[in-house]
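Quarterly update from the structural biology core.
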Amino acid sequence: MRSRTAIWFECKIRYEKVMEDGLQKKVNESYVVDALSFSEAEERIIEEMSSYISGEFDVADIKKAAYKEIFFSDDEMADKWYKAKLQFITIDEKTEKEKRSTVTYLVQAGSFNGAVKNIEEVMGGTMIDYVIASVAETTLMDVFEYAKTKKDDKPEYEQ
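Predicted structure, tokenized:
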């Protein structure tokens, strides 16, 4: 398991897909990309999807994701994405009352139980008290992380 914090965008792609029965059907699929802006997210999803989709496709929607951190699984069977809401428990020193703050994560796993196990694996290494408020399977197809390419390798300054 590894986790990655970034600015994530959910992108919806609309295209004609050849189904198992050989017929073409217009489908909408959701993906997540790591980007700094909406325009960069659009550029990244077009670049990523152009190698998978033959023919035309539209970027139907882009929205900023509710999660800042994603837990990636090393398991080959982990082919689903789950949205997990965790509540972190802190005690207010002045009032001595329990305070809960909710944080949303995206977790890669093969099953619901696998998602819970992955959350506990990552969060078990922290000293923070937490409660898993909810875990729900998403319709996300894949997550594309930013990878530095050769053209990005520029010196910090020019001499």
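Strands lie at 2-5, 8-18, 24-34, 57-64, 69-72, 80-91, 98-109, 129-137, 140-144.
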